[in-house]
Amino acid sequence: MLNRIKRGLVQSALGLSALGVVALTASPAAAQEKARIEWKTFHSKAMEGNLEGNSADRGAFVVTPPGYDQHPEKRYPVVYFLHGYWATPQMYQETMKFDEAVDEAARAGNEVIMVIPDGHSKLKGGFYSSSPTVGNYEAFVGEDLVKWVDATYRTVAKREARGLSGHSMGGYGTMRLAMKYPQTFSSIYAMSACCLSPMKVDEAGARKIEAMTEEDIAKADFGGLAQLSTLATWSPDPTKPPKYVDTGLKADGTMDPLVNAKLAANSILAMVPQYLPALRQMKAIGLEVGDKDFLFNDNTALNAELTTYGVAHGWETYDGDHGNRIPERIRTKLLPFFAQHLARQ
Amino acid sequence: MARRLAVLAALILATFAQIHPAAAQEKARVDLVKVHSPAIASNLEGNPADRTVYVVTPPGYDQHPDKRYPVVYFLHGYFVEPKAYAELFDLEAALTGAGAAGNDVIFVMPDGFSKHRGSFYSNSPTTGNYEDFVAHDLVAWVDAHYRTLARRESRGLAGHSMGGYGAMRVGMKHPEVFSSLYVMSAGGGSVKLITREMAERAQADDGTVDLSAPVGGVQGDLAQLAAWSPDPQRPPNFINAGLLADGAIDPVVQARMAANSLIGMLPQHIRELQQYEAIMLDVGDKDGLATDSRAMSSELTRFGVVHKLEIYDGGHGDKVKDRLRSAVLPFFAAHLDR
After folding, report:
1. What angle do CA B71, B277, A243 make, to 5 degrees?
2. Closest-approach residue (CA) in chain B for A280
3. Confidence class of residue A224 from pLDDT cuts 50, 70 and 90?
């Protein structure tokens, strides 16, 4: 199912070179007339010691609005944006052009800092979760990143001035982190969120994953890798090198139902009832999905669930698929949403 | 206004409960107090937000007004109110004994009872947010009203059966509040799946609670569904048992049950559990829950979470009074900062 996530969204960005990234970060010494995008790295203690060897030195794009350099006393709200599976922040930048979006927003009076952290992993996505195999992406973003941004940039360093958003796997991360870090973020905007309903692995799937070699992993397609990646995130097993994954396949050939319980435990629809006090602390929640998105039904179910529990939220469906309208909607919906809800001091 | 009155009443009750003899306190003293919990307020079952709490102060508490004490929080099991555990434990004697052995601690047991006889110390709009009640409201109240060492290093969390589940659950979510865990005969370790029969029975229940009914049957299912699959739109029990038109069970409801099993939650909370100074599990070898405790222990081992599992000669409840004295209180004596 996940293999459609990338279509039309990140494929074109696959060839982006490291040189292109460096060029993006060069900043003029003169007054800052336009938004500036910088690629920065910092150390995330939460990411240390993961078994896949994903670096604890994490990168992030930080976009400062026009005028940031000229007004050294001014502080800004921050919009965090979490990218999707398979992709990197660079691939998203190719498509979204975050600096241009922040620039346009500032000209409309909405000056914000935008931060896009690197949620990529060896298996192409950490799902912004906490796993000894993959690393603690949840705390990397929810704790270490926020602390680093507040220490490094002139932010309004309080929850009222922090928004969290993301697309696809990043939409999942948005919902998940809102539930776990209501003291850190005050409004959230989830675009085409993935992984809302419980995933399942069956015996055939487990066997396939058990058989995957490093070589298979290197050339796996989106669908082939996504199941291994979600298992590494949600059913980790530090005692099973080299993948450190519990697929649930037992020695006698039967499946351990515990694996599906672990996957279920990380589905947003299953988590929401446990985290209502956190969700109710949000000043604003925005959900959206395209009517041709393969995740349309899942997002519709999340909308219904939030309604059942009386969690105030906005819900919008639009003519589009999983990725074709995202750059536009960041400009017309996401940034205006945060302009309305984030405190400026 | 009503709420304010309730707060006031709770305060008055609490104040009275704390009036103690001017004389020296030679034995542990059991205070029965009411604590108002905003986290429990406005739940759909009508469980009172003014919660009964047993607070036991150690011998000498009155004579040493400058002294501060570590606190052991204890969560009781399903089916009963905390009174049953207070009597079973004979708290005055247990804490007097601990004090005499040099282990002066404050012991706190909150009321985890609910309409269907047990909250599972979880957050739910149907039952109320018992998890937040324990980790936030109760701890803040105890620190404000008793001379505690108000820091995680001096707070232990324990519980038996449903309370063992609660200790593990609240412990996983709140390593910033507690520093050691003692989990006795924990329930809720394995995944409970809803069958068609269970769902039909739960949905047919008219919401009248028979407090004389024996343990088991529909009430336990209702309690767990209320805690883990609440549905504010469905009176009288405000649960979603997941029964679909074709007789199948909604996979989201099954997922919620799985998501609230300790063993399903565990891998997400490794970092939190690794912050504990000490984790202890115990269970009787004749307890039906021994399998769950063993499975929990092997999961903890798999994830490198340092802990101990002790299996003793006994059933689900017959040794609990003894083990509070011989195992639980000494464990916290060894691990809580003074």
Report:
1. 140
2. B125
3. confident
| pLDDT above 80 (res B48) | yes
CB distance A237–B259 less than 8 Å? Answer: no
Shortest Cα distance from A226 to chain B (angstroms)?
19
Residues B64 and B20 occupy one common structural domain? yes
Helix B251-259 × helix B218-228 angle, to 10°? 90
Helix A258-265 vs helix B251-259: angle between axes, to the nearest 10 degrees?
90
Residue-wise burial string across A161-172, b where 16 or more C-beta atoms lie within 10 A, e elsewhere: bbbbbbbbbbbb
Per the CB < 8 A criterion, the answer to whether A233 and A129 are in contact is yes
Instruction: Identify whether B208 is part of a domain.
Output: yes
Q: Is A236 on the interface with B (CB under 8 A)?
A: yes
- Using one digit for the tens of pLDDT, what is the confidence trace for A67-86? 999 999 999 999 999 999 99
- Residue A242: asked if its preceding bond is cis (omega within 30°), the reply is yes
In a domain, B263, yes or no: no
Question: How many CB atoms within 10 Å of residue A31?
Answer: 10
Would you state the pLDDT for residue B187?
80
**Contact assignment for B304 to A132 by CB distance below 8 Å:** yes
Looking at beta carbons, which residues of chain B come within 8 Å of A257?
191
- The reported pTM is 0.91
Domain with CATH 3.40.50.1820 in chain A: 2-13+21-197+269-341
Provide the residue range defining the domain that includes B283. Answer: 2-190+269-335
The predicted-structure confidence for A178-213, as pLDDT tens digits, reads as follows 999 999 999 999 999 999 999 999 999 999 999 999
Residues of B within 8 A of A132 (CB-CB) are 267, 270, 303-304
Q: CATH code at B14?
A: 3.40.50.1820
- Are residues A122 and A54 in contact, defined by beta-carbon separation less than 8 angstroms? yes
Number of H helices, E strands in chain A: 15, 10
Q: Looking at the structure, do residues B134 and B29 belong to the same domain, yes or no?
A: yes
DSSP-derived secondary structure for A216-271 = HHHH--HHHHHHHHHHHHHSB-TTSTTTTB--SB-TTSPBPTHHHHHHHHT-HHHH
- Helix, strand, coil share of chain A (percent; to 5): 40, 15, 40
Domain A2-13+21-197+269-341: give its CATH architecture. 3-Layer(aba) Sandwich (3.40)
Check CB contact under 8 Å for A258 and B269: no
Question: Are B274 and B249 within one domain?
Answer: no
Considering the domain architecture, whether residues B201 and B176 belong to the same structural domain is answered as no
What is the CB neighbour count within 10 angstroms for residue B308? 13
Q: What are B230's two structure tokens?
A: 């609440």
